[in-house]
Amino acid sequence: MTLAVLLSGQGGQHPGMFDLTADWPAAAPVFAAAERILGSDARKLVRAPGADLHGNRTGQILCCVAALAGWTVVEAARPARVIVAGYSIGDLAAWGCAGRFDAETILRLAAIRAEAMDAAGGAGAGLAGIRGLPLAAVETLAGRHGCHLAIRNASDSGVVGGPSPALEQLCEDARAAGAAKAVILAVRTPSHTPLLREASQSFENALAEEQLQRPARAAPRLISGLDGDPVFDGRAGLVKLARQISQTIDWAACLEACQEYGSDTVLELGPGHALATMARDAIPGARIHALDEFRSAAGVVDWLKAS
Question: Are residues 208 and 136 in the same domain?
Answer without folding.
Answer: no
